[in-house]
Design goal:
single chain, alpha/beta, Rossmann fold, ProC C-terminal domain-like fold, eight-stranded mixed β-sheet, binds NADPH dihydro-nicotinamide-adenine-dinucleotide phosphate, binds (2S)-3,4-dihydro-2H-pyrrole-2-carboxylic acid, oxidoreductase, P5C_Rdtase_cat_N, amino-acid biosynthesis
Length: 280
């Protein structure tokens, strides 16, 4: 087993984002990585794009070849994946799950090695945004440092406690989908109300968003101070803002109730799938 090699299990949407972000950041070279995917063609396409990137024949091989395994499969796919990894897992491995509806103690009970969670965000594709870290009971200071170092190449890693993991992930990982939906509605309504072209409105809104990101990045404004500064007393913005003040409060409370309910449902499905497993 190569202690410096990282295995990415599952090269779907998020697995490939994390992998490609590391490669583009030159944080890891292709030869430091090995990948596996249920449908091998998807992994092979990535290997063609990045010469030197190895594709494991199966999950036992990836576990034999890499000491750190980043698990990028969906919650109900864990059970089978863990069975496939199990013959080659040792206490010297480090498993990093990127999904939230699997409890770390639950995972620890299935494997001989330390486990951690790092929930990435699509923003990590641009080496920005945060990743949310949670550490299992077997994690040492050395593991923490390794995990922080790996994920700081593509994000700002932040440690969160289990109780706040879900809401943090709603804000950072689901957030880009929520915000882009709202901005899309802004564009659609601008087109409908005024006849501006979709492309022009999209360009204007995208540039506005990038500019806002810069304002926050450079700490020139906070979200409230920005509203205050744009909203000239007796001016035009206030008229528009009052419509939003009537419509938006409470919407996100419902969003979070729904995401938390879905999370609880996913946890239960995983729990019942794992507990119905026939013992060896
Ligand atoms: N999308 C996002 O923005 C974020 C997602 N996440 C989490 O990431 C996880 C994965 O999501 P996402 O990438 O969108 O899902 P995808 O379905 O796109 O990717 C999952 C991948 O895992 C592969 N796979 C399934 N079982 C195995 C197995 N036993 N061995 C190897 N590979 C396997 C699948 O292969 P196949 O090609 O056959 O389908 C697929 O490519 C989810 O739990 C999600 O919560 C976390 C943060 C952000
Ligand atoms: O939609 C999902 O389930 C995942 C979790 C965080 C972002 N996407």
């Amino acid at each position: 087993m190569d202690l410096n090699r990282i295995g990415v299990v599952g090269t779907g949407s998020m697995g490939s984002i994390v992998l490609e972000a590391w490669l583009k950041a030159n944080a890891l070279s292709p030869s430091q990585l090995i990948i596996s995917n249920r449908t091998p063609a998807k992994a092979e396409q990535l290997a063609e794009k990045y010469p030197g990137l190895a594709v494991a024949r199966d999950n036992a091989e990836i576990a034999r070849s890499a000491s750190i395994l980043v698990l990028c499969v969906k919650p109900l796919e864990y059970s089978l994946m863990l069975q496939q990894l199990s013959s080659a897992l040792t206490e010297d491995h480090l498993l990093i799950t990127i999904t939230s509806p699997i409890r770390l103690e639950q995972l620890e009970a299935q494997v001989p090695c330390p486990v951690a969670r790092v929930v990435p965000s699509i923003t990590n594709a641009a080496r920005s945004g945060v990743s949310l870290c949670e550490f299992g009971s077997r994690i040492t200071e050395e593991h923490r440092e390794r995990i922080f170092s790996l994920f700081s190449a593509i994000s700002h890693p932040i440690e969160v406690t289990e109780g706040f993991l879900r809401v943090s992930s709603d804000l950072t990982s689901c957030g880009p989908a929520f915000v882009s939906y709202i901005l899309q509605q802004m564009i659609e309504d601008a087109v409908k109300e005024t006849g501006i072209s979709h492309d022009a409105a999209t360009y204007l809104v995208s540039q506005m968003l990038i500019g806002m990101g810069e304002l926050l990045q450079q700490e020139l404004f906070t979200l409230p101070s920005l509203q205050q500064r744009v909203c000239v007393p007796g001016g035009i913005t206030g008229e528009g803002l009052s419509v939003l003040q009537g419509a938006i409060p409470g919407v996100f409370a419902e969003v979070f109730r729904r995401t938390h309910a879905k999370f609880a449902e996913d946890l239960e499905h995983v729990q019942s799938q794992w507990s119905s497993k026939v013992p060896d």
